[in-house]
What does this fold into?
Amino acid sequence: MDRASASSPVSPTTDERTAHGRGRAPPHQLKVISFMELALRPGLSFCIASDRAIFLDLPRNRYFCLSPRANDAFVSLVDGTAPPASADLIRNILPANLLAPALAEGRPLRTQAPLALSDSLIEQSSGRPSMMTMSQALLQLAVTAASLKILPLARIVAAIEREKQAARHLASAVISPALTDIVAAYERANLHVARHDRCLPRSIAMARHLLRAGIIPILVLAVMVRPFQAHCWVQFEDHVLNDHLDNVRNFTPILIV
It folds into this structure.
């Protein structure tokens, strides 16, 4: 993933050792992984579509797929069709850096659950943001763009996760005036900051802004292929805040923060 933009197209290659490649990921019901004594190594997340697994390696800031043989082995683990006796064989087929021993106290690993999507607030917003909220949005956009140039994406995402945990007592499903004001501010910021290929910094900036306003957002990183694209948006409950439904429905979530 380009740290400056999650929507920048990439053209990965497929190799069993480096685990690059392409796949298609339409939304569908995702399942619990049964790795037995195995688990994905820390920092990896993935989604599956049309029997194809797509991975996000957040610490290394890249997406990848597996070779056809390794992909089939991995998918058989995910959907539970791999015979127990084949565990050693599958482990030898998969890339060496994909799996790690599962801790006894570790939680079951899961793919990202499907997200509910009811509407987009930018399609309902027609008001002008307050001057203060507009100024805060432009400042947050500038700070986030600078942060993405000097800090690893994994560190930024971890900070958002910590802020969400600290603010979890504020959770509310009510669409407040403060929320609609922030949505209007970031939509209006399109007049000042180029929108094309800027979904990652815009979404991170909005998520931070919402948290500082006492609103708990959902930050979504997602993928599609043909051509491969990575995308990012923000939700509040099942309301998309900075994109249109017709666009986000083309992507499959690979990491939900």
